[in-house]
Amino acid sequence: MPLALEIIGPEKLLLARDVDMVVIPGTEGDLGILPGHSRMITSLRGGLVDIYENDRIIDRFFVSGGFAEVTETQCAVLADSITRQSELDPAKADAALAEATTAFNAVNMADRDAYRVASDRLISAQAMVDCIAASHHHS
Q: Do residues 7 and 60 both lie within one domain?
């Protein structure tokens, strides 16, 4: 029994297909979702969504955050922003990390909301840079 995976970006449904397993970057760590998984909703951190078929990764997406809704037969990933790993731009990622770092360093620690936003942005930008670095080692 396959898992019906839907990946939804800010503008559109990016992907809808049956898969054997998907690994999503939960805030507490990576989660492998297989058919028959218990129902849950989890928030996502910046990281990779790995799509598996026959025990191998057939597609990878980088998400900057968002959440996933899981049922026994379905996994819907609602991403704040999403890019295929192969389409990530190293220069853009480096620039985003530099901007996020500057913004984070300038934030008033006493303003908890601003601090959290800046911190999330920094973590996500760092995750994107790491993800590009990792993909280049494999090739």
A: yes
